[in-house]
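[job 0412] stage=complex_fold ligand=retinal status=START
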Amino acid sequence: MELISSLGNSTFENYVGLGTGYTEMAYQMSAHVLTLGYAVMLAGLLYFILTLKTVAPRYRISSVLSVVVMVSAFLLLLVQQQNWTGALSYDVETARYVLGSSTDLFNNGYRYLNWLIDVPMLLFQILFVVTLTKSNFSSIRNGFWFSGTAMILTGYVGQYYEVTNPALFFVWGFISTVFFVHILYLMKKVIDEGKEGAPPKAKAYLGTIWKLFLFSWMLYPGAYLMPYLFGGLEPAIDSEMAVVARHITYTVADVSSKVIYGILLTLTAQEMSKAEGYDYEKMENAI
Ligand code: RET
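[job 0412] stage=complex_fold status=DONE, emitting structure tokens
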């Protein structure tokens, strides 16, 4: 009870930090995986810039959007990592990393704000690679934007209640999921239409993109639920394992949904470009 009053609406990472504290392994694994996250974004940035000219001009906006995603994710994930190391300090007596006394608390909010930029970009991106056969470009784009933003904002509010008010946490999480289902529905439609008339290799890539999309986007609600996946009916406010699992889940999700997804879109666009007579492998000065 005492913990609850002093930590208020902060997320469960802080409760673990004030309660049992983190062992060297849990603290460092978290710090390292968060660092890996932003390092991959910088590497991805170079990939998307350097491969820009391997696709025909009409597909290049997709790579440009990947560049935008990489820059914003790099910066926000860097801040997220510093938030982790800044919030905790080593206590020699207990040999644990504990919450500092006058430092910021840890919060995953930077991620949510990053998604506000990246989610619409990632969703728009595919619209510049595939050709829609039946649906209207602007209505899909607006649907992506509306449901993407609503999904994140409702989840952002919900995550503040993960320890103090499970009922609100689940209600906001549920509302967010309704928008998520709408996004999945739109994406499936876009990919199915995109496959029609696409060259065979591009078709196969689009199939992989759908599987990757489902897998990687589902990890985010999984990370949201992490204190309950480890705690059952009560949030796991004493489980450093759950905290590490959340950092790892977010990082795997970020690398898959932003970098690998972007690379697969580039490969799809390369195949489509080739089918239209733009073959970078046969061109001089392509890059
Ligand atoms: C929340 C709240 C709980 C319910 C659901 C969620 C879904 C989040 C998703 C986020 C995707 C983020 C991406 C970021 C890339 O930069 C908000 C966690 C369903 C799907 C792809």
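Residues 240-275 form the longest helix (36 residues).
[job 0412] exit 0
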